């Protein structure tokens, strides 16, 4: 396990291998990884094989790594979602997180061999390489803020929001975007959509910290 934060200034050296098309790089669901490697380290991928794309081409009931681990390695990962949303910037990383990081990649090469064999039998190996190549060509782009986009959330409701509720929704929408950019977090981490809508719709009745936190944690839309 490499500490990408501690070695951040040196990780561009990975391009010697990562941009060598003769060396296969096996990832699972690489779209976000490709964008983060571009954004944070200036690292790019050539010769990518995305096992998630292989699962899609083969028509598996799930494209998740958890499914592939269960299918080929008989390994279950019930805590996967917990670790996916954990704060990986903390140091030192707890042993459980380190173990998850290792397991998340340890079996990928074996899974790759299994998938490649099956793809060879079905004749779809070229399709996976093509789709993986397109994933590898993805570049990070700063998400633009659209001030009127909050109205899209309002239109999804089966009823019309009151003017005050709309004003609250608009302000929360702006605050969430500003905070996410300042803290370098996702908007979903700062304030999930359901919690944002719940706060807006109940803005007239929220009169205590407890009721405010209830809306944020529960995210229940009346």
Describe this structure in words.
The protein has 222 residues and is mainly α. The protein folds into 2 domains: 8-136, Ribonuclease H-like superfamily/Ribonuclease H (Nucleotidyltransferase, domain 5, 2-Layer Sandwich), CATH 3.30.420.10; 147-218, Orthogonal Bundle (DNA polymerase, domain 1), CATH 1.10.150.80. Helix content is 56%, strand content 3%. It has helices at 15-18, 31-41, 51-57, 65-73, 80-84, 95-106, 108-122, 125-136, 150-155, 163-183, 187-190, 193-201, 209-218, and strands at residues 25-27, 48-50. It has a two-stranded parallel sheet with strand order 1-2. Helix 10 packs antiparallel against helix 12 and helix 12 (193-201) packs across helix 13 (209-218). The chain is elongated, with a radius of gyration of 22 Å. The termini are far apart.
